[in-house]
Amino acid sequence: MNLKFSDEEIDSAIRKNSRSSSMILDLKNTASWIPDEKLFYARENKNKIELARIKTPFTALLPTIIIIFKKDDLQKPRLRLSFFGYLLFSLLLIMVLYILLKKVFDDFEGDIFSATFILLFFLSLLFCEFLLTKKTYNKLERRMFSNKTS
Question: In sequence order, what are the beta bridge partners of 81?
Fold first, then answer.
């Protein structure tokens, strides 16, 4: 994804539409009851800016997707899961693979459908969070475009 804005415009829009956070976004509770103009929590360090969508308490159960901007190239943001999202996905995948291997080699009596259903449920929650993060990110782009034209 290549943005059509200058690095200064992107940096300004991120700062104007984000709440600053000193806590690592992987551990931060990004749910908020207070609606305002801010779209993201932002954490900045020497070489990157990380953004996490501000969630409503109803969407707080969704896994957190973090948008990463490198400071030397703000044109190409990247996405990643939070630490707990990676951990949960890894555990669910290991569980499904273990049950599958046990079923093939040991004639395991366990239920592979339940484990697969739980993994697919997590992936559907991840997809919902991706769509909501994309919608919020598009809102940020629209705000950048409206500031550019005005």
Answer: 65
Half-sphere exposure of 89 (CA within 13 A, CB side): 15
* Total residue length of the chain: 150
User: Which has more confidence, 108 or 45?
Assistant: 45
Give the Cα separation of 136 and 77 in Å (integer): 14
**Helix intervals (H) in the chain:** 7-16, 83-106, 112-149
Asked whether 75 and 7 are in contact (CB, 8 A), the reply is yes
Residue whose C-alpha is closest to residue 135's, from 76, 63, 65: 65
Q: Is the predicted pLDDT of residue 36 greater than 70, yes or no?
A: yes
Judge whether 50 and 66 are in contact, CB under 8 Å: yes
The letter for the amino acid at 98 is Y
d(CA 55, CA 133) in angstroms, rounded, equals 9
pLDDT band, very low/low/confident/very high, at 68 (cuts 50, 70, 90): very high
Rounded Cα–Cα distance for residues 59 and 30 (Å):
10
Helices 112-149 and 83-106, axial angle in degrees (round to 10): 150
Q: With contact defined as beta carbons under 8 Å apart, do 67 and 81 qualify?
A: no
Which band of pLDDT confidence, cut at 50, 70 and 90, is reported for residue 144?
confident
